[in-house]
Amino acid sequence: MGDVLAGFHAVWEFESDSVLIRYERGIRTPKLFQALGERRIPLSALEEVTLTTGKRGTVALRLLPRPGADPLMEAAAGQLREGFDPYRLVLPAERSTLAERLADELKGLLAESESGPADRYLVAAPEAPLQFKAYDGKASFDGTSVQFRWSWTGASTTKWKAGDQSFAVADLSGVEWRAPESPQGHLRLLRRSADSAESAQPDQDPAAVVFGRGYGPVHESLPFAAAVLAAVRTRGPVPVVPAPARRDPADIAERIRHLGELHQAGLVTDEEFSSKKAELLAEL
Predict the structure, then answer these.
(1) I want to staple 132 with a disulfide (CB 3.0 to 4.6 A). Which of 63, 69, 162, 220 is the partner?
(2) Domain limits, the chain
(3) What is the pTM of this model?
(4) Contact indicator for 252, 283 with CB cutoff of 8 Å
(5) 130-234, what's its fold?
(6) How is domain 4-111 classified at the CATH fold level?
(7) What rounded mean pLDDT belongs to the chain?
(8) C-beta separation of 35 from 25 below 8 A
């Protein structure tokens, strides 16, 4: 197809076998989109495409993924609000003609592909390592295991007595995610063992972390849940992105000293000096 469709918060590139979605990083772009960055959606992962009239002179192009094709949407389990739907592109009405043509072309391609529930994930999961801060602890995932470290200000007595937890992917059967804005928002790890405490309230279950206002936001906790779910489904690790190597403090100090000399000589402005110095310090 080779067409490009630019909408609010994202640009979709239509290829012969997939749709590449590049999300913007603007202030008004939902943080979930910014966290996802870029996603390639194979046409084999899609079931339907729709084009509807939106609000205030807009149209909305939406892709419907097949059940079980995308770990992110499976973890979300229909809890995402419309504005946080990563498969929905809102466009100015003047682009509706192009959007309609592309929607028709996609429908033709989808009619020739497999439909119904997918037997495996077809959309790549968010990459580990991932972490986020919940109300009662900190959750981290390195691709092979999940760790919960309890907060002394938020964790229940039950969790404190159980101690910090570590769960190998091989010991899990799934993930239960409840949106942070819901009354009992939480992320619970579902274990394969028959004696698990999954019937317990999340604040009393050592295999769950509880969200709260400002803790475990969607853009952090949902990609986390999706990555764990994908690893569980394949019973193996998801790709791990190596952490950037820390710079030698002596080298950073020398570069800042040199930058200061340039600043004093008038070769670097105050704004450039402050900005570059902050960048160097961030590398420590």
Answers:
(1) 220
(2) 4-111, 130-234, 249-282
(3) 0.79
(4) yes
(5) PH-domain like (2.30.29)
(6) PH-domain like (2.30.29)
(7) 88
(8) no
